[in-house]
Amino acid sequence: MKRAIGLIPMLLWASGAVAQDAASEATRAAQAELAARLPLNDPADMANATRGKIAEIADGVILGKDGRIVWDRRPYAFLAADQAPDTVNPSLWRQARLNAVHGLFEVVPGKIWQVRGYDISVMTIIRGESGWIVVDPLLTEEAAAAGWKLFADTVEAKAGKRPIRAIIFTHSHSDHFGGVGGVVTPEQVRRENIRIIAPHGFSEEATAENVLAGNAMGRRALYMFGAILPPGPTGQVDTGLGPKLSSGTIGYMEPTETVPAAGATLTIDGLAFDFLDAAGTEAPAEFLFYIPAYKALHTTEVVTHNLHNILTLRGAQVRDALHWSKVIDAMLLKWGGTAEVALASHHWPTWGQGAVAKWLADQRDAYRYVHDRTLFLANRGATLHELADQTAEAPVQGRDFSTRDYYGTLNHNMKATYQRYFGWWDGNPAHFNPLPPEQSAAKYVALAGGPDKLLAAGKAAIAAGDYRWAAELLDKLVFAQPDSQDARAALASAYDQLGYQAESGAWRNYYLAAAATLRGTELDTLTGNGQSRSFVSAIPTAVFFDALATRFDAAKGAALAGTFQFVLPDSREAVAVVVGGGVEFPRYGVTDPAPTATITIDRKTLDDVMLGQAQFPALLQSGAIRIDGDRAAFLSWFALHPPADPRFNVVVP
What we know:
The chain is α/β, with parallel strands linked by helices. 37% of the residues lie in helices and 16% in strands. The strands form 5 sheets. It has an 8-stranded mixed beta sheet with strand order 1-4-5-6-7-8-9-11, with helices on one face. A 6-stranded mixed beta sheet has the order 12-13-14-15-16-17. The termini are close together. It has 20 helices and 23 strands. Residues 1-17 have low confidence and may be disordered.
């Protein structure tokens, strides 16, 4: 049985269990061992991260139109210290300090600039023949507007005001297009014929990924990005990929043109761009490009200054490490001998032809290592949970910080690659249909001789520095006795140490956020972001009805049968929803000849519902929704779509 969030009041933790643990002796030893074998004081990355800086937003603070703070770097002042505290992996500390450098940077003098440090992603501005070309306008409109203002106040103030000629969306993840409304308006795009260029498949992928599984992805993202943690040496320090997600409004604009799978050379405001398709690497729709005139290579998110995710912790479709490595090699073969600067959608650039070629080769080797070592071991019988413990880090990871586990990790990327080829099951029949966690947990507690003995064993594992084993034991106890303060506190202590030791920002955030949940100290925030009307309106109607079907309560609606015909006059669309046998099947573009009921509703009104600006009962009363046929049957069907809880439990039953 699922228990409501907040069942145990915070008063329960007033005895001192709320406070996080200090770094243990085992954690301090692990941090020291890593620091001893890595050249953490190598200044090359910091030199590149600060190179060309010409301006910054004062205090790193961005306000929305309503005066609300949407970005604030002041709580991260603790990152000014050169030495990592014991509670942060020293390699992650180095990465966090690099990501903390914020401002406007000149990448190619007078030709290319980047706005960095005001979102998890990076916005690039390129000078064309008569105007500007903007690449990846961040996640939110507020952050993008502030970044563009910094550029305009600094560069345009000296070089003269020029129009925006094109916007480039490099791929279909929202942190690279969601802020477009902060840079240009739809009216401006139409009036000034601004080109919006994206990879093939962009429109389908950009809005669809988070619609069908969005609630679960969003909940897990709160843990992965540390959104429910306060910043600090025992809290959120970085994501590895960038500082954090900006908060504000996520928007959308439809591309005016797309680059095909074969790639293309386009002239954009008098400047030649050579595009290479990268679909199926980091995103389902993605490309990268080279600008011969500037000898500049934009690697998008295919190559950044970390090992990326083959399967992100928030959840997504498994990516293809083999294909990823081959796209990087194609980039290396095509431009590795000519590019003099490489820049990406995250992190800082790399300068020098030799350095660029080495960076590409090292990144290629890291993804190939993930893929080939997984299959080498799997073909010799290693299973999903054995692979990583049998594998040392890739040789390249010991000498190139850009390939280290700051975001994705060798550990979970190998598991993801195994999943891509073999699925979730390891082949052992004992694991084919195990008991659900809450049922097995009670049996483990009984087998251990009762909760006191299991708790003692978990605490003994913590004392021995065996935190993975402690977490496994104590997780059973928490699922068997979720109201036990002692069980929660002990498991939180194990998670603290695992988080402190994690080199991956995502792993650290997930462990420490889980500990905060157990203690009742997680920040009370769902998300700082809201989808704009432009984003919601871009969701295909077919995807909306598929998502609606995932909310159908099959248990309660098993006896319901009928066809509900939706007619959307303003968008000239029709959807017939066939219900029966506990299944709801939307037929997009179909008009049923004898529906149970016909519902006439504008697509714009559906957008109002998705945005929370209108409710079905009020719309029915006002006449914005018209129902012909069996009204009672429709209302009965509609009531069988309860909303999902955005704060469902993750680390407790």
